[in-house]
Amino acid sequence: SRYEYVKNFERESILLPETYIVIRVDGRGFHKFSSKYDFEKPNDLCALEVMNSAALKLMETIPNIIMAYGDSDEYSFLLQRRCDLFERREFKLISTFASTITAYYQYYWSQSFPEKPLQPDRLPTFDARTVCYPTKELVKDYFRWRQVDCHINNLYNTTFWSLVKSGLTTQEAENRLIGTLSSDKHEILFKEFGINYNNEPEIYKKGTIFVRELDFESDVNIDLSKRQAQRLQKKLKKSEIKKLHCDIIKDEFWDCRPWLFS
Amino acid sequence: SRYEYVKNFERESILLPETYIVIRVDGRGFHKFSSKYDFEKPNDLCALEVMNSAALKLMETIPNIIMAYGDSDEYSFLLQRRCDLFERREFKLISTFASTITAYYQYYWSQSFPEKPLQPDRLPTFDARTVCYPTKELVKDYFRWRQVDCHINNLYNTTFWSLVKSGLTTQEAENRLIGTLSSDKHEILFKEFGINYNNEPEIYKKGTIFVRELDFESDVNIDLSKRQAQRLQKKLKKSEIKKLHCDIIKDEFWDCRPWLFS
Amino acid sequence: SRYEYVKNFERESILLPETYIVIRVDGRGFHKFSSKYDFEKPNDLCALEVMNSAALKLMETIPNIIMAYGDSDEYSFLLQRRCDLFERREFKLISTFASTITAYYQYYWSQSFPEKPLQPDRLPTFDARTVCYPTKELVKDYFRWRQVDCHINNLYNTTFWSLVKSGLTTQEAENRLIGTLSSDKHEILFKEFGINYNNEPEIYKKGTIFVRELDFESDVNIDLSKRQAQRLQKKLKKSEIKKLHCDIIKDEFWDCRPWLFS
Amino acid sequence: SRYEYVKNFERESILLPETYIVIRVDGRGFHKFSSKYDFEKPNDLCALEVMNSAALKLMETIPNIIMAYGDSDEYSFLLQRRCDLFERREFKLISTFASTITAYYQYYWSQSFPEKPLQPDRLPTFDARTVCYPTKELVKDYFRWRQVDCHINNLYNTTFWSLVKSGLTTQEAENRLIGTLSSDKHEILFKEFGINYNNEPEIYKKGTIFVRELDFESDVNIDLSKRQAQRLQKKLKKSEIKKLHCDIIKDEFWDCRPWLFS
Ligand SMILES: Nc1nc2c(ncn2[C@H]2C[C@H](O)[C@@H](COP(=O)(O)OP(=O)(O)OP(=O)(O)O)O2)c(=O)[nH]1
Ligand SMILES: Nc1nc2c(ncn2[C@H]2C[C@H](O)[C@@H](COP(=O)(O)OP(=O)(O)OP(=O)(O)O)O2)c(=O)[nH]1
Ligand SMILES: Nc1nc2c(ncn2[C@H]2C[C@H](O)[C@@H](COP(=O)(O)OP(=O)(O)OP(=O)(O)O)O2)c(=O)[nH]1
Ligand SMILES: Nc1nc2c(ncn2[C@H]2C[C@H](O)[C@@H](COP(=O)(O)OP(=O)(O)OP(=O)(O)O)O2)c(=O)[nH]1
Ligand SMILES: O=P(O)(O)OP(=O)(O)OP(=O)(O)O
Ligand SMILES: O=P(O)(O)OP(=O)(O)OP(=O)(O)O
Ligand SMILES: O=P(O)(O)OP(=O)(O)OP(=O)(O)O
Ligand SMILES: O=P(O)(O)OP(=O)(O)OP(=O)(O)O
Ligand SMILES: [Mg+2]
Ligand SMILES: [Mg+2]
Ligand SMILES: [Mg+2]
Ligand SMILES: [Mg+2]
Ligand SMILES: [Mg+2]
Ligand SMILES: [Mg+2]
Ligand SMILES: [Mg+2]
Ligand SMILES: [Mg+2]
Ligand SMILES: [Mg+2]
Ligand SMILES: [Mg+2]
Ligand SMILES: [Mg+2]
Ligand SMILES: [Mg+2]
Predict the structure, then answer these.
(1) How many Å lie between the alpha carbon of A28 and the closest alpha carbon of chain D?
(2) pLDDT value at position A237?
């Protein structure tokens, strides 16, 4: 029609080829969401598993996702370096990931919490963003950043809610923790509540990793021939997605999985 | 942490101030979605109303949306020219709209179609994009574009499915319509099926408009004083959102609503 | 060749259609440049005219420029709203304007200052940037901003160098002026140096405007028919470029020249 | 001033950190420029050396440029991966490179061609663009692309102008070369003009490389400690810039210079 010219005002943003794309989604206003639907404090295992199921399903749907990491109300998805999903169009990626995680979260929520039906004035929603990293070292540091963040928040929250459950007001608990170091919190937990933080569940301390897993072959080379690369892609597609709660800060996790960066 | 530097790789895109922002969402793969959940052809009124409810709810939640237009699996939302929602950050806008429309669609679907529970392998999802228009004439042409598109598709689909219901295969119906003009389709409908297209339901022919409605005051000026502008904003917030299926191609709709561009 | 794929890494940025594009160039390190080539203080008329000649020549070369404003080491060029120069590609616009102003400046310098040959370790260079404005009010405010800036700087510099020429060190002069208002500077100039600032040359106080000039016809409408618009474009191409040092803050300048925004 | 708000309409584009930035400048309309100033055909050594001098001077001025490659009217500059020049702001980079190469070209032209003074209606100007490459392999392929292009053009031009000088019209020469392979052109040159293309000057066949040169130490490692990296940077700053006309398609050039990617 004579009005079609208005489509020329649309802009496109193509993410730089051959960089690793990370897409992070984060629950919008989950502070309020978690209190409205009575999440357990500091961690609601069931709610975390809703998030994990949603992320896993998304990963199963999109084979270009080679690994994912999540904790709290957020998840980060790593696309392969050569990934051409939506021709790397940023707006399609962002909107699709935001929409899909939302759809799965609501779906799994209704499966897991039939007794807590979602109400229209507070449905779970997510923002999304893309980030490009040119090297694998940066990708590793990205995921380390998220896991360190998980650790810091969880140590804080665990101590905070222990104090509150023992009778302090939230304000008092907050004041008590101002300026404390990591070691101080460990000590409070141990001395005052008999909690050895190291024995806390790994899923809370480390978050959740989903990773497409291959048998480790020391020779999974980075510089593959074209044919080897295609074979690897095929293997990856059929590979099992493993769920882990392990350390991803040390090198070991990465050194054992060269295919993440192939 | 020492890993926080990776956040510096995030980019921001701020939409040009003082332009009208339109955000369009569109169902992903609704061809398959509509056939999986047995939509009526060519139009499933109930499904359209799920979409309408989702869009209305989104508009109620975000007061910056001054009007919306939708048909089929898509909706366009118009933000006010001075709107500062998310500081006009494009990625927040895109991801939030994609996520929120998804959440509401699924919610209203489960209310409207208890007999058609959504299945995890085909949940409704949406992409989203922003477009900026510097003038109100362009904004009008944008919405005209969408309504003309609605009209063209609906006339085609109505004729196509009439032919198919009368016994043609889909391939035969398609062939029959190749090269036909608008007037030819009107004639087929009338002569062969006794359908006067003009009497078809307005919602199918024109789509759905949601608009924040004020009493028409011929003097709603474009150049308001600061205080008048604030008063107008207040009025708009309290105003009723009206649902219409009227023509938005002619000037009348726009001339009666100067506040859309204030 | 097999290496051509690397061209896919190039990005394009297209400026939003139907917005007014302003391109501003600014001399790089002209503090040092002006002292190296012994500019008169606070204003070197000859050097300013080199800048003006360069800007005028650029404007003559590119008919899409409808007006320009400059002072000190900077110039701003206004493109017409519908302008399609380089298909509105930002990088071409930026690099071409930066390059062309550089070429003309050096050329006119060598004509105007044969006794001050440019030396390779300090050639005049310029940065450039584009800004898009959706409305003509914003465009006016843009140029007002630059002229107010010119005024503020010139009043300061005139007072500063009067003080210095009267014997103060630059540090003393700076201290003397800290916290002074516009009126204080007027007074210093008048009382201590017998200078009535209002009688200073207009080119210093107001900067320089180049504008494509038409006979004023009160009826130069904004909403022209297509044919009228083409006729106007033709007229503009043949029109004379006028050089002014007048006020562009008040409405008069703009009200008399509706064609700037046609 | 109250008008300063218009500055908020400026946009910034920051190039992705830790990618290799290449900036390519290219003469605008050098087809006409070269004929106006009577360049020798197909190659004007003196004009090429003006270009080379301008590029070298630019490289000397900006220590972040680790190598440059040029032929015909273009030059490509490679910035170091960690380079923070202008905080990686794209518009500053583009405009500064376009402006600086223009200034130097004009300057060296007037030194080299006192008998061909530049005329204001055809001054040499340049466009500029940035491209980011995430890996060193891509950077190598980028420069290979330019050198292959140089070779293809030069072989064509050499044959074309030989034909023209022998009496063909330009149209006839063009027709003669349509569909010819590289080997055909070699043969034409040899059989018809006694020219062994391989003996043509290297500067025409290979273009010009400027590279910051270190003594080759096989152990210039990619993964340097912070202190080693700083020492390397210092060395590079003091290092000599070498001018070469060698092959950069084969690996040898790159393998000998690991510091290009450190
Ligand atoms: N009680 C409880 N709260 C949780 C759990 N997981 C997440 N949350 C809450 C704690 C935080 O307040 C919130 C996540 O923090 P964010 O920084 O993402 O903030 P929020 O989502 O409120 O705002 P945002 O829209 O992301 O800026 O979600 C949980 O398992 N239990
Ligand atoms: N039967 C039926 N189909 C509908 C209705 N509303 C929308 N659809 C279908 C018809 C179209 O195939 C589809 C919308 O067209 P689109 O161009 O958006 O394509 P689709 O969503 O399949 O792909 P996309 O992911 O948007 O590229 O949705 C309805 O009320 N009834
Ligand atoms: N003496 C003298 N100086 C002038 C004249 N016109 C401009 N300048 C100098 C005064 C300022 O120091 C400088 C312009 O200020 P800018 O803010 O553009 O700074 P500058 O160019 O030094 O740095 P930049 O690279 O633009 O950030 O040029 C003149 O006519 N006479
Ligand atoms: N005769 C002669 N011509 C040269 C020499 N170096 C470059 N040229 C001319 C040949 C080409 O026509 C032109 C470079 O080609 P380009 O593709 O850059 O085209 P041009 O600069 O004309 O247009 P552009 O503004 O870059 O799109 O410069 C030379 O040494 N001798
Ligand atoms: O932790 P982030 O990156 O989400 O930081 P934020 O402060 O929440 O910022 P944003 O508004 O971009 O979500
Ligand atoms: O109709 P549109 O704009 O959605 O056009 P499209 O062909 O679907 O393109 P896109 O892949 O951008 O949705
Ligand atoms: O006055 P401007 O806009 O040039 O401001 P600046 O501080 O010089 O910034 P820039 O580094 O963008 O020239
Ligand atoms: O060879 P390039 O990249 O300059 O290609 P072009 O066709 O000249 O395009 P441009 O208009 O971007 O210079
Ligand atoms: Mg956030
Ligand atoms: Mg959140
Ligand atoms: Mg969060
Ligand atoms: Mg689409
Ligand atoms: Mg769709
Ligand atoms: Mg659609
Ligand atoms: Mg500046
Ligand atoms: Mg300057
Ligand atoms: Mg300046
Ligand atoms: Mg080009
Ligand atoms: Mg060229
Ligand atoms: Mg060229």
Answers:
(1) 27
(2) 87
Q: Supply φ then ψ for residue B208, to 5 degrees.
A: -125, 135
A230 φ/ψ angles, rounded to the nearest 5 degrees: -65, -40
| Tens-place pLDDT, residues A148-166 | 999 999 999 999 999 999 9
C27 alpha-carbon distance from chain centroid: 11
Report the predicted TM-score, pTM, of the whole model to 2 decimal places. Answer: 0.97
Those residues whose C-beta lies under 8 Å from the C-beta of residue C85, and which sit 6 or more positions away, are C62, C64, C79, C93
**Coil/strand/helix, residue A77:** strand
DSSP state of B210: E
DSSP result, D62-119: -TTEEEEEEETTEEEEEEPTT--GGGGBHHHHHHHHHHHHHHHHHHHHHHH-TTS---
Q: A135 and D134 in contact by Cβ < 8 A?
A: yes
Render D195-244 in DSSP notation, one character per residue. --GGGS-HHHHH-EEEEEE----TT--SS--HHHHHHHHHHHHHSEEEEE
Number of DSSP helices (H) and strands (E) in chain D, helices first: 9, 6
What value of ipTM does the predicted structure carry?
0.96
- CA B122 from centroid of its chain's CA atoms: 22
CA angle A5/A8/A9 to nearest 5° reads 115
Task: Assign residue C91 a region (left: φ > 0; alpha: ψ between -120 and 50; beta: otherwise).
Answer: alpha
Mutate which of D24, D33, D34 for ligand 4 pocket (most atoms within 8 A of beta carbon) = D34
Which two structure tokens, joined as six digits, stand for B160?
């196509």
Q: How far is CA B210 from CA B137, B213, B216, B245, in A?
A: 19, 9, 16, 9
Chain B residues closer than 8 Å to D16 by CB: 9, 11
CA–CA dist B2, A254 (Å, integer): 18
Token digits of residue B30? 């609704």
Q: Which atom of ligand 1 is nearest to the CA of A35?
A: 1
The H or E element spanning position A76 is strand A74-79
Residue C75 pLDDT greater than 80, yes or no: yes
Burial B97-123 (b: 16+ CB within 10 A, else e): bbbbbbbbbbbbbbeeeeeeebeeeeb
D118 in contact with C at a CB cutoff of 8 Å?
Answer: yes
Cα end-to-end distance, chain D, whole Å: 47
* Amino acid B228: pLDDT: 87
Q: Which residues of A98-133 are buried (b: 16+ CB within 10 A; e: fewer)?
A: bbbbbbbbbbbbbeeeeeeebeeeebbbbbbbbbbb
Interface test with C, best of D12, D87, D102 (most C CBs within 10 A): D102
